[in-house]
Write a structure and sequence with these properties.
Elements: E1 2-11, E2 21-27, E3 47-49, H1 51-59, E4 65-69, H2 78-88, E5 92-97, E6 111-115, E7 140-145, H3 148-160, E8 169-173, H4 180-190, E9 195-196, H5 200-204
Parallel strand pairs: 2-4, 4-5, 5-6, 6-7, 7-8, 8-9
Antiparallel strand pairs: 1-2, 1-3
Helix pairs in contact: 1-2
Length: 212
């Protein structure tokens, strides 16, 4: 049994898959409290559902791309079973995770989008750097930048772990805190091997709207 916050059909707002139609399975619970969190409603709200019932719901949308998000999906152990069953059913599966819980046992067919939390999140000490060893070429690492300190820290991490040579790197701003043009100018000045991304769903719909 899993605690589900919501299941909805929308477009990918982030990652290299931005713009693609996708079914999102938002699971309940998170053990981080990032300063900029925009899904606090997923900390506790939700309903119980069996794995097979979730998959049945997903199939109604007739979309092959599926993403598990949260909250933090990996808190619930049965999320690993759900991902495995979705992959075996022929779905293209993505996982969005905060980077503080081990990804070692995630099905290798799953495309992982993993955060590394920057200083302004106040959750930087929770980063589970051992996860970097388990990243696959198809995975991606995301940095959410709110300050120049965040940006400079990201550069240190990229260099220390040779990270941009391992996987695609995604950079976005903390919505409403840092102007996109500022981050883009920093990236261009340093000629970083990263992909700047907007949160597309916050531009298409109202920034606080749920289920998109």
């Amino acid at each position: 049994m899993l605690k589900v916050n919501e299941i909805y059909f929308s477009v990918q707002g982030e990652s290299t898959y931005a713009g693609r139609p996708c079914v999102f399975i938002r699971l309940t619970y998170c053990n981080l409290r990032c300063t900029y969190c925009d899904t606090e409603y997923a900390f506790y709200e939700g309903y119980d559902s069996k794995v097979d019932s979730i998959i049945k719901e997903v199939k109604k949308y007739k979309c092959n791309l599926v993403e598990l998000t949260g909250g933090e999906p990996l808190i619930q152990e049965e999320s690993f079973v759900l991902m495995e069953k979705l992959c075996s059913a022929g779905f293209e599966v993505m996982l969005e995770t905060g980077g503080h819980m081990s990804i070692k046992e995630v099905d290798k067919r799953v495309k992982i989008i993993m955060d590394l939390k920057c200083p302004s999140s106040k959750m930087m000490k929770k980063n589970h750097y051992e996860n970097i060893a388990y990243l696959k070429k198809i995975d991606e690492v995301k940095f959410v930048i709110g300050t120049r300190e965040d940006y400079d820290w990201m550069k240190i991490i990229l260099s220390e772990y040779n990270l941009d040579k391992k996987v695609p790197i995604l950079c976005s701003v903390v919505f409403g805190e840092l102007e996109p043009v500022t981050l883009v100018n920093w990236i261009l000045e340093d000629n970083l091997n990263v992909r700047y991304q907007l949160q597309m769903h916050k531009i298409i719909w109202e920034p606080q709207e749920r289920g998109v």
